[in-house]
Design brief:
heterodimer; A: alpha/beta; Urease, subunit C, domain 1; TIM Barrel; 2 domains; eight-stranded mixed sheet; 26% strand; B: alpha/beta; globular
Chain lengths: 365, 415
């Protein structure tokens, strides 16, 4: 435990980006997510943080003012609650089924083309997860898409444990071979008060309604801090999930999905289930994270809920609420300037700031 | 008894008042696509056709008038590469004489969701392994599933991966295969041409009672019958070549030039890198899929949502299509429902809204060869129309009505 803390402290020390300029973004519609939208507003960025924002704020002397088109929108950088970005799916220890000490961040390659491509996606914070092939795959970590090398992109090595009750975790050549076996193994580990599954939030990959039931049973028995991941068939257990007050990291939604799946995020949100969208990158690209939200809105999800599902909610699930997920004074200046409403897919990212530094700018045609 | 009376009354009413044949949509913003958008305009539909469109159109007294103030009307969307009606996983080795219409299953109901999103016509083509795949067709999404255009194109595949693994050598076997097939077909066409000429001469001589020897009749072959149509000087059969990588695109352009084919490129995944060459060759592209999932296939390694925009800006005629390609992670024909979203997402990389709309209406119609009757809102064209509650590419906009042949095939509520 001490070693882990030290490692974390080290990560934080190294993660400090080079000193950023004092910037004022001016003229756009500000969508803080955690508060009312502001037309033609301003955001003051200093020391990598959001210093202030509003309809009119004082421009500090020496600040660089970036005038934005009135039609553009400023949103907090999106937070992807579950991905394998930059890992080429090399995130499973296939000979064992319980590898709680494995860290998904180890597979992250900051120079991977997908990571580069994600710089202009509107997503600025990404959870890196172990795969679905292990009953307990290991630690979920967090990186920021700041365009820098691994040690500076890395934010947290462990925000939770990834477990899988999906068919992918069942193999004929090792335990567990069945869902009953999988649940029994997990119970055994969870019962151990000194075990390695204690104290960490559990992110459980589930797909079918039966797998969702199993996960919720475990949650209620052991009073776990649990998030259901993917939960494609959650539409069949909306009330059960809502009653258990278990959040869902849902998605990605794609053009191939059936209508029932497309309607599921809206139904979950209406039932009061906290919902965050996931890209599952590289299964879909980071730039498609907002596509999931746009499709969900098209199929009945409330706009505001969909917006939270890209920002504040995933930040909360990953324990990053204090750092990012909304435009608020003191939070990291992870800001994305869009050419308009990001749910209208014809709009695009114009400018990205991570920790107050401009990391990406759209090329002029 | 009262029921009978009521029925009789209804019957009499129907007899007395035949349904007016003219429908007028008044007050809408109309995107004709062939010209500038018209604000607060009127559209007349008569006998399934567009009878008039403009700002100063007089509405006949007997017309059914629809108040469309605040609404938007666009042409019915055309998906230039759809998988609607096709069985899943259909990837058998094809051949020229295979016709997609023989694989179409009109009992599949997925098309209804596409209609609800404003799609009125789709091109379906053979999706096959091998280099010569067969004939595609354009279908109308009316209840009768009318075939708008039979033999719309001959589908070829050049340098696409065969499955999970694929070597460059394996992929490019298709180029010599295609050359050989086309060369054979050209000779076939020439042999028959010569035969017909010789036969005509013999007939002439016989008419003059001169002695003449009947020319030997060449062997007929169904495969070459189809392939030879690409050389028809009057109405050459369109050739749609599936290509992904930039080098395969270069080979396709060479084939088009060598054999003087009327070529359309499909996918052109790396088309962004070859945009100038495609533009120079004046070859249109059916671009897509815009949304890729999974992505293990070699063909989609360099997939980019920006490729359609790059092509349009280079001057290439582009249709954006749904494609629903399994190798791009798609399952089922669902992507047709998201044709507008596909165009929007592609356009976010540098197209205007008008360009994006054209890519799924008029440009698609031109590339398919149905633009004389479809693809824009012009007098005389078929009344395939979509009524929206706002701008097509804005979040929150909903298709209120879809019309095919002037008939409402989808409606969100009562008028």
């Amino acid at each position: 435990m001490k070693g882990l803390l030290l490692a974390l402290a080290l990560v934080f020390a190294q993660a400090q980006p080079p000193k950023a300029e004092v910037l004022v973004l001016k003229g756009a519609r500000i969508v803080p997510v955690s508060g009312p939208e502001i037309d033609n507003g301003m955001v003051h960025v200093e020391n990598g943080k959001i210093r202030s924002f509003g309809a009119t704020i004082e421009v500090p002397p020496g600040a660089k003012v970036i005038d934005l088109p009135k039609t553009s929108w400023i949103l907090p950088g999106f937070v992807d609650a579950h991905s394998y970005l930059g890992s080429a799916f090399d995130v499973e220890e296939s000979t064992e089924s319980l590898t709680p000490e494995a860290r998904a961040v180890e597979a992250f390659t900051s120079r991977h083309p997908d990571v580069r491509a994600a710089m202009g996606s509107g997503v600025t914070t990404v959870a890196l997860a172990p795969g679905n092939g292990n009953l307990v795959g290991g630690r979920i970590g967090v990186v920021k898409l700041n365009g820098q090398r691994y040690d500076r992109a890395l934010r947290l090595i462990s925000v939770g444990l990834k477990a899988s009750l999906g068919a992918e975790a069942l193999r004929p050549d090792r335990e567990p071979t069945s869902r009953t076996g999988a649940v029994a193994l997990l119970r055994e580990r969870l019962r151990d008060p000194k075990g390695d599954l204690q104290g960490l939030p559990l992110f459980v990959h589930v797909s079918s309604a039966g797998e969702i039931e199993s996960a919720l049973d475990l949650q209620s028995t052991f009073r776990l801090k649990m998030t259901l991941v993917h939960a494609r068939q959650a539409g069949e257990s909306v009330q059960r999930i809502a009653a258990a007050k278990v959040p869902v990291a849902f998605g990605p939604l794609t053009v191939s999905d059936r209508r029932e799946t497309l309607e599921t995020p809206g139904r979950l949100a209406r039932a009061g289930v906290p919902l965050a969208f996931v890209s599952d990158a590289p299964w879909t690209s980071e730039e498609q994270l907002r596509v999931s939200a746009a499709f969900a809105v098209k199929y009945g999800m409330d706009r505001e809920a969909a917006l939270r599902a890209l920002t504040t909610l995933p930040a909360e699930l990953l324990g990053l609420s204090k750092d990012c997920g909304s435009i608020a004074e003191g939070k990291a200046a992870d800001l994305v300037v869009w050419s308009g409403d990001p749910f209208s897919l014809i709009n695009d990212v114009e400018l990205v700031l991570v920790d107050g530094r401009i990391t990406w700018r759209k090329e002029k045609p | 008894m009262r029921v009978l009376a009521l029925l009789l009354a209804v019957f009499v009413q129907l007899q007395d008042k035949p349904q007016p044949k003219i429908t007028a949509y008044r007050g809408a913003k109309i995107y004709t696509v062939s010209g500038a958008p018209l604000e607060n305009a009127t559209l007349l539909i008569e006998n399934g056709r567009i009878a008039a469109v403009g700002k100063d159109v007089a509405v006949p007294a007997d017309a059914t008038v629809v108040d469309a103030a605040g609404k938007v009307i666009i042409p019915g969307l055309i998906d230039a590469a759809s998988r609607l009606f096709l069985p899943p996983g259909e990837r058998s080795p094809g051949s020229a004489e295979q016709n997609v219409l023989d694989a179409v299953d009109f009992y599949q109901r997925d098309y209804r969701e596409a209609v609800e999103q404003g799609v009125t016509s789709v091109y379906v083509g053979p999706l096959s392994l091998g280099s010569v795949n067969g004939l595609g067709a354009v279908l109308h999404l009316d209840a009768a599933h009318t075939v708008l255009l039979k033999d719309a194109a001959l589908k070829l595949t050049l340098g696409a991966s065969g499955g999970e693994s694929s070597s460059a050598l394996e992929r490019y076997q298709s180029y010599p295969q295609l050359k050989q097939a086309l060369e054979g077909a050209r000779q076939y066409a020439e042999t028959w041409e010569k035969y017909r000429k010789d036969l005509a001469e013999v007939e002439q001589k016989k008419a003059k009672k001169e002695e003449a020897k009947e020319p030997a009749k060449p062997k007929s072959d169904p495969r070459n019958e189809v392939l030879a149509r690409v050389f028809d000087p009057k109405q050459p059969l369109r050739v749609r070549i599936e290509v992904h990588t930039a080098d395969a695109i270069a080979l396709a352009l060479r084939l088009a030039d060598d054999f003087k084919l009327r070529v359309v490129l499909e996918h052109a995944t790396e088309g962004g890198a070859a945009a100038a060459a495609i533009a120079k060759a004046r070859i249109p592209v059916v671009a897509g899929p815009v949304f890729r999932m999974g992505g293990y296939s070699v063909d989609y390694l360099n997939h980019s949502a920006a490729s359609a925009a790059t092509l349009v800006k280079a001057g290439v005629p582009v249709a954006i299509a749904s494609f629903s390609d399994e190798r791009a992670g798609h399952t089922g024909p669902g992507a047709s429902r998201f044709l507008a979203e596909s165009a929007a997402f592609a356009a976010s990389r540098g197209l205007t809204r008008d360009q994006a709309l054209a890519c799924i209406t008029l440009e698609a119609a031109k590339i398919l060869g149905i633009d004389a009757t479809h693809g824009s809102i012009d007098k005389g064209k078929v009344a395939d129309l979509v009524l929206l509650n706002g701008e097509l590419f804005d979040s929150g906009t909903i298709v209120e009505e879809t019309l095919i042949n002037g008939e409402i095939v989808h409606s969100r509520g009562k008028r």
